[in-house]
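Structure tokens please, single chain.
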Amino acid sequence: MKLYANPTSPFVRLVRMALIEKGLNEATETTFVDAWADDPAFLDANPAGRVPTLVADDGARLTEALLILTHLDAVGTRPALLAGGPAALSAAGVAIGVFDAAVAVIIGRKSAPDFDAGLVGTKRFRTMREGLRRLDSVFVSMQEPFGLPAIAAVTALDYLVFRFPDHDWRGLCPNVAAFRDAQADRPSVRDTVPRG
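Here you go.
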């Protein structure tokens, strides 16, 4: 398999963590790309020019993180990441909503320097704050096994700390922060921390 990625995208991190957790990382060639540069090979894999994009062993091109995770659960032999029923998926959805809002702010700033103070920016920051609070209230029961809820929660917290270091994100979600700290040496966490 081949994964088109970049080192900061939280959507990519979901997939990279999943590859490690499923024991598929060694069988996957990861190519880091600048999603804004329109590299021809990358656009051939995904005409939308978005990461992550996974080219499966049979040549199928898979886009969108959750669709890629579904495929990895089907081909991997280790425990399913998308298990746990509606409560687990609900917690994962809250975490994904948090970092989706953060990505919207980062992209919005590219076209409007005052994006944060506008209607959309204000709403996205509210989503991040309230999402972390809600995630923290349900997260105690969602930590094991280390599936999508845990991966998405770690990804959400780390991405906000990385992109908006002047906010006290950890203070909004002490349960998630403690869990993340306890997982610091886990290869999927340690080896995928966003760097820019």
